[in-house]
Design a protein that fits this description.
elongated; transcription regulation; transcription; Peripla_BP_I; DNA-binding
Length: about 350
């Protein structure tokens, strides 16, 4: 039996080839609800293979109430940290028999809303979401009844399930690491001030300084985008003033841009300026000098997010994971041998 490329093979075609009814073909494909004799089942399977029949996924989804898909809406997939999280989520979703649809907001709140609407129209079984500015469109999602897990701290009043690390505590710890090295003049390259994660990281930096009775110099707080270009320009601005002895860049991309600007001015890290950062990936370990950085347990967080959607019961949950500090050469610590499997 042959079919032209323009003609879709139907269950009727399979039934005709197998010499049985359409209902029996459906029972074989859906494993029920009625039993099928093994010999008949094998004839149907052979007919499916011969005709090239592919079940209509949309129709099956309508019948079962599940599309077997999850949606991921992320701020900017070009950010290596976000890309690593997306990769881990895709792995976990696939292991659960689901397809992960990716929506890249490109750091645009308007585009973020459009992506959410698109995911909801596709009737995804669950949504994993990191908002561009931590002011998410929760009402839109909750009105649809779609299970949702946020991968960032949000206002507790939003009544949404969240998987997170304590970014303020993490910023405090990495700043304290610089203080423990003996550095006293410590600046910060942060993200846009209106973003809640920027505010958390500034507070952590400030708390560490104040706890050690060190000066919080407002001129050493430089706000910029969470990009390499942002880190580069922020460092150049700081170089026009009095440069502090150590810097905390609030994401890995900013730190890489900072390194470039310092190198152009003949400054060495850590000999002239020490540097630490937040949300590192394996890229930090392979950089020269390797970056001392806060890291998040991406694989564990991704597994928890997928498990939360898989076992969704409507109850709001907040799960906080422990961050960890991976030391490198950029702060003055002795470097470690790089192992690709180390995360």
């Amino acid at each position: 039996m042959t079919q032209s490329h323009s003609q879709r093979v139907t269950r009727s075609d399979v039934a005709k080839e197998a010499g049985t009814s359409v209902a029996v073909v459906s029972y074989v494909i859906n494993n029920g609800p009625r039993p099928v004799a093994e010999a008949t089942r094998q004839r149907v399977l052979q007919a499916i293979k011969k005709t090239g029949y592919r079940p209509n996924g949309i129709a099956r989804a309508l019948a079962s109430g599940s599309t077997q898909t999850y949606g991921l809406v992320a701020p900017d997939i070009s950010n290596p940290f976000i890309a690593s999280m997306a990769h881990a989520l895709q792995h976990e979703a696939f292991a659960d028999g689901k397809v992960l649809l990716l929506g890249d907001a490109g750091d645009s709140s308007c585009r973020e809303r459009e992506l959410i609407n698109n995911m909801l129209h596709r009737q995804v079984d669950g949504l994993i979401y990191t908002s561009v500015d931590r002011h998410p469109y929760i009402n839109l999602i909750q009105e649809s009844g779609t299970p949702c897990v946020m991968l960032d701290r949000v206002d507790p009043g939003l009544n949404v399930s969240v998987i997170q690390v304590d970014e303020q505590m993490a910023a405090m710890q990495v700043t304290q690491h610089l203080i423990d090295h003996g550095y006293r003049d410590i600046g910060i390259i942060c993200g846009p001030r209106e973003m809640l994660n920027t505010q958390d990281r500034i507070r952590g930096w400030q708390q560490a300084l104040e706890a050690s009775s060190l000066m919080v110099n407002p001129s050493w707080i430089i706000s910029t985008n969470y990009t390499r270009a942002g880190g580069y320009e922020a460092t150049k601005r700081m170089l026009q003033r009095q440069l502090p002895r150590a810097l905390f860049a609030t994401n890995e991309q900013q730190a890489l841009g900072c390194l470039r600007a310092l190198a152009e001015h003949g400054l060495r890290v850590p000999q002239d300026v020490a540097l630490v950062c937040f949300n590192a990936t394996q890229e930090s370990a392979y950089n020269v000098p390797s970056l001392t950085a806060v890291r998040q347990p991406v694989d564990k967080m991704a597994r928890a997010a997928i498990d939360m959607l898989k076992n969704w019961d409507g109850e709001v949950r907040r799960v906080e994971f422990e961050f960890y500090l991976r030391t490198g050469e950029s702060c003055g610590c002795q470097g470690h041998e790089v192992h690709p499997e180390t995360k």
